[in-house]
Amino acid sequence: MTRQHVKLGLVYSGIGRHSSAWRLPEAVADGYTDPRVVAEDVRIAERGKLDFYFVGNSLTSSAHRGNFAYTGKNVQASHDHLFAIEGFTLMAYAAALSEKVGLVVTFNTTYNDPFHTARITATLDHLSNGRLGLNIVTGSDLSAAFNFGRERHLDNEDRYDRVEEFTEVLWDLWDSWEDGWLVADKETGIYHDVSKARPINHTGKHFSVRGPLNFPRPPQGHIPFMHPGYSERSLEYAAKYAEMRFIQWRHADWNRAYYADVKSRVVRHGRPAEDHLLIAGITPYVAENARAAHAKFREVQDLNTNVFIPQVLSDQFGIDLSGHTGTDRVLAAIDRSLTPEKAWIIDNAIASFDDEDITLEDLTHYLGNNPMSQPAIVGDAADLADFIESNFREQAFDGLAICQPYWPGPAASFVDLVVPELQRRGVFRSEYTTSTLREHLGLPSAPNRLAERTAATETGGAA
């Protein structure tokens, strides 16, 4: 695989990435339940020739999330996981409305079963003609355990022991039917070749599965995996099993070092480095000119309901901000040399506002949307294209997941303004020349491991 083109995906919006942007006059507030959001999203992604359309998923629940302002106790103003649309249902709908764009669904292995998962995913890969991808997660929130009759959430080591075994079983179930199974001989009445199916006979610590799967092998063979996470086990799992890794965007130096570390892990697992793509999440604010883009960013930030509390920001940056007020200037109040590990957050906030004179209240609003994950990148088409091209070419990432601060508007602006500029520079495709998600990503075909093992056993026995 060559790195000629950056990989681009669009993230399902719901009511948007930003906690308060739904308050804009032009934004919708009922996007969680409006099918037009999904329909328009996936059509925008396909119009832009993007590699994939992505949906998160969550099994956690709390009716109180989303309405918190800063009160001294509740310090997170966010709608994260307030509602979470069911991803496979969404992607089945999106598959019917699109022809080329990949469809990546977030999926929690801790609270699911490999056989059921194999059926769902093989079916949807066929219905989409080979465009499905899976974002494999293991979860971390105790409320998910409560929703599944458990009193505790598995610890990190147990979760990753389970997900590794889950992955091996899932692959074997997908491989339990070989290509060429369909005979459909109308003269003899033979419909399928029974020799193309085999049980997997898996018995392990977490699962016992006989197989075979009761549905044909997915068109992609093995549906591509994406995986996020920060632990050592997460890094090693992704390096061994995943084709994509969802990563933070901090700044160029940090991301280049992270990129090199992750790729070295992939190689240690005996895989080509280019078969594991690093996808950073960003939230672009793009307009016809940079001034308008920064003005929209400022408008959105000012809709936040959270307020500056000295102790909260002190804890965030590890410095004493007692005695300061929200109107104090950040650069006067915070000596960035005293918080070197967090200075990049301040730098990114200043760049997003395009204003070195931002206040502690501005910084509080900025932090209220977790800029450590999918941070804002603000500017005109050339600014965004410069950011993407330079960091792609300098191996800070292989691609981007484009988050929408609100809906409608930002996704269309990215596709209509930034994508043509990337195409003009030769950094992104002008037309689809491939059909499946694996092909879009430049990944090799996936051999049938179960068939290979069976053939090797038979050859060894014959010898």
Account of the 3D structure:
With 463 residues, this protein is of the alpha/beta class. Strands 1-2-3-4-9-10-11-13 form an 8-stranded parallel barrel, surrounded by 7 helices. The longest helix is centred in the middle third of the chain and has 19 residues. The radius of gyration is 24 Å and the shape is globular. About 3% of the residues have low confidence.
Would you count the extended β strands for me? 13
| Unreliable stretches covering 5 or more consecutive residues | 64-79
User: Structural class, from secondary structure content?
Assistant: alpha/beta
The share of residues in helices is 25-40%
Strand content: 5-15%
What letter string, H or E per element, gives the SSE order? EHEHEHEHHEEEEEHEHEHHHHHEHEHHH
Q: CATH-wise, what's the superfamily of the largest domain? A: Luciferase-like domain
**Topology-level CATH name of the largest domain:** TIM Barrel
Q: Under the CATH scheme, which architecture of the largest domain would be assigned?
A: Alpha-Beta Barrel
CATH class of the largest domain: Alpha Beta
Number of helices: 16
> What overall geometry do the principal axes of the alpha carbons give?
globular
Radius of gyration (Å): 24 Å
Q: How far is it from the N-terminal to the C-terminal residue, by CA?
A: 37 Å
Overall average pLDDT: 89
